[in-house]
Amino acid sequence: MRLIHIFGTRPQFIKVAMVARAWQGKSDQIFIHTGQHYDRNLSDIFIEKLDLPQPDINLAIGSASHAIQTSQMMVGIEKAILQYEPDCVFVYGDTNSTLAGALVTTKMKPILVHVEAGLRSFNRSMPEEINRLVTDHVSDFLFCPTPQALTNLKRENIGKWAYVNGDVMADALVYYRDHVLLEEVLEKYQINPQGFCLLTLHRPTNVDSKENLTAIFSTFAKFDHKIIFPMHPRTREMIAQFNLVLPHQIQVIPPVGYLEMLALEKNARCVLTDSGGIQKEAYLMGTPCITLREETEWVETVQSGWNVLVGADGEKIYAAYQSFHPTSARRSIFGDYHAAEKIVTKTLAWMETYGKQ
Ligand code: UD1
Ligand code: UDP
After folding, report:
1. Catalytic: which of 66, 114, 202, 248?
2. Which ligand is the nearest neighbour of the Cα of 201?
3. Where do the structural domains in the chain lie, given as residue ranges?
4. How much distance in Å is there from the Cα of 326 to the middle of ligand 1?
5. CATH number for the domain running over 177-323
6. Whether 202 is catalytic
7. Whose CA is nearest to atom 31 of ligand 1?
8. Distance from the CA of 257 to the CA of which of 48, 135, 201, 354 falls in 20 to 30 A?
């Protein structure tokens, strides 16, 4: 059997690393990097540090409007599928790289497999929500990280070949957390465990809006703790464009590697974020998460009491910083940390039974 993995952004390198490891020795694997992320700190360091094989093809599409970026990826992916003739194509998550892979594959011969299927924010102004909806609806085989994700698919009548198998990012966290060099990270940023907050921001609704960015940053001027801020390049560009000056509490650092990020998340007093992946990781680490969004796909983290949604509302952010200190028990939301192996076993069995039809 031969399969192609399609990926191109920071969180996708992490997901592919786990699934590819589980496929080792069980299938030929071809790796196609769309080039959606290309800065070393958003791409190559992940490939190197997570032991992901070097991509067989890097389409090097880079940044552009949604239509240009997605369509150029599609042209490259179609060529690759014709060249390699895989049995399956795996796409991950909800980015434009996911969408491009799904739209091409569904009109070709290979079976299309979506890892991290069924997530819904129910906010169609998010590009990711459109990518998820389309990808789920055209995929042959859907792997859901949570029961809620499967419920979402069933509600849309597309759950026939969908399975709850746990979350491959939870697998990754458990696999890599022992590799973390905590002392180095604390020393590098001059921080102590519990003595700092960790901030990430990259959603267009926050960073492409001067009003929202201003509301968020002016709140941080009231914080008593240092805020470590690995800044996404999109955010860096918008801060420069809006001419914003950040409060002294914020220590901007370049985007960091995954192991360093895990160390920061684990030791932060709280995480402030609009990232999807980081909400899950904060939960798994037992770090309170203050999510700078109005809604989340990862509703279980909110229901469990470890994540609070505050949007870009300065008062809510500050209130959460002061008083959000969850203590409730954390149940296992994201599976048993063997999601990737289950994906492989299920796909092999499924291909055996139906793949050749
Ligand atoms: C993308 C995904 C988002 C995911 C995020 C993970 C889409 C629509 N968005 O958002 O779902 O959560 O990745 O981090 O697929 N840039 C650089 N260097 C890079 C990459 C980007 O400078 O290596 C800058 C460019 O100015 C670019 C901007 O960041 O225009 C946005 O990049 P893009 O890949 O379009 O979206 P992200 O915000 O990274
Ligand atoms: N991450 C990282 N370094 C950073 C910021 C994030 O390694 O500077 C990791 C983070 O731990 C998580 C993933 O990248 O595993 C989340 O990616 P991101 O927030 O870019 O995207 P999202 O999950 O929102 O799609």
Report:
1. 202
2. 2
3. 2-167+335-355, 177-323
4. 32
5. 3.40.50.2000
6. yes
7. 234
8. 135
Tell me the one-letter amino acid at 279: Q
Tell me how far the alpha carbon of residue 227 is from its chain's centroid.
Answer: 22
| Sheet hosting strand 2-7, strand order edge to edge | 57-58, 28-33, 2-7, 88-92, 111-115, 141-144, 162-164
At what angle are helices 10-23 and 339-350 packed, to 10 degrees?
Answer: 60
Ligand 2 centroid–CA 116 distance in Å is 15
CA quadruple 56, 57, 60, 66: dihedral sign: negative
Among 44, 97, 261, which is best to mutate for testing ligand 2, by the most ligand atoms less than 8 A from CB? 261
Same fold flag, 2-167+335-355 and 177-323: yes
What is the token pair recorded at 298?
Answer: 């990862």
d(CA 204, CA 60): 23
Residue whose CB lies within 8 A of the most ligand 2 atoms, among 264, 278, 281, for a mutation test: 278
Architecture of the domain made up of 2-167+335-355: 3-Layer(aba) Sandwich (3.40)
Residue for token digits 């399956």? Answer: 88
Could you tell me the mean pLDDT of each successive run of 10 residues in the chain, 357 residues long?
98 98 97 98 96 97 98 98 98 99 98 98 97 98 98 93 97 92 92 97 97 98 98 98 98 97 97 98 98 98 98 98 97 97 96 74
